[in-house]
Design goal:
The protein has about 200 residues and is α+β, with helices and mostly antiparallel strands. The chain contains five helices and ten strands, in the order αβββββββββαααβα. It has helices spanning about 30-40, 135-145, 150-160, 170-175, 185-195, and strands at about 45, 50-55, 70, 80, 90, 105, 115, 125, 130-135, 175-180. The strands form three sheets. A five-stranded mixed β-sheet has the order 2-9-6-7-4, covered by helices on one side. α1 (about 30-40) crosses α3 (about 150-160) and α2 (about 135-145) crosses α5 (about 185-195). The radius of gyration is 19 Å and the shape is globular. It starts with about 30 loop residues before the first helix and ends with a helix. The relative contact order is 0.18.
Length: about 200
């Protein structure tokens, strides 16, 4: 049955001038757009201005015998922290090891956009994980905390491509905005979250 009046909870209109390169409807969802507008108008920065390096890993040969280097996959990336207890291992020489103090995103699948802070160091990452390196480790940890808040998740939700299999790219990560405080406030936010 055709509705003569649109259902405003399910339908929305956007102007052609507001289309910015994406044609998936969820990208323009008014509830996401309004949250993002608030942050953009506040004291915020685009991640692209802070990122030093982005990298994905390789789909390396794995083993569970505990030989080689730990191998982080998407299931090892939890909100805020990495969980490498159940990680496989790899002896593959073609590995990428993210720098301690970076943040790790799941790139694809069910938990796409999960973000963890890398305080562990020496492990390899799969091709379904993106490591983001900054010059400033305090900012990296703060950024991870922010991106795990409801409003931070709104940015990730908007940027990830919701295709047959959800995915987030380097460019999507570069496009994310983060509300920014001075370093002392960033440290305070980190301390409160860690103590909680």
């Amino acid at each position: 049955m055709l509705l003569l009046t649109p259902n405003n909870s399910k339908n929305f209109l956007i102007n052609c001038s507001d289309i910015d390169g994406r044609f998936d409807a969820e990208y323009y969802n008014p509830s996401l757009v309004s949250k993002i507008k608030l942050i953009k108008e506040a004291n915020s920065i685009k991640l692209s201005t802070k990122i030093k390096k982005l990298q994905t890993g390789f789909n390396s040969e794995q083993n569970i015998e505990g030989k080689g280097i730990k191998f982080a996959r998407t299931q090892n990336v939890r909100p805020l922290k990495l969980d490498l207890k159940s990680a496989a291992y790899t002896n593959d020489l073609l590995v990428r090891i993210p720098k301690k103090g970076s943040i790790i995103f799941t790139r694809i699948g069910v938990n796409v956009g999960d973000v963890a802070y890398n305080d562990l160091g020496n492990f390899a990452i799969s091709d379904n994980v993106i490591a983001v390196e900054f010059d400033d480790e305090i900012f990296a940890e703060y950024c991870c905390v922010f991106l795990n808040t409801e409003i931070g998740q709104s940015f990730i939700e908007r940027e990830k491509r919701d295709t047959a299999r959800a995915i987030i790219s380097y460019q999507n990560i570069r496009n994310i905005f983060v509300f920014i405080f001075d370093r002392s406030k960033q440290k305070e936010v980190i301390r409160k979250i860690n103590s909680a």
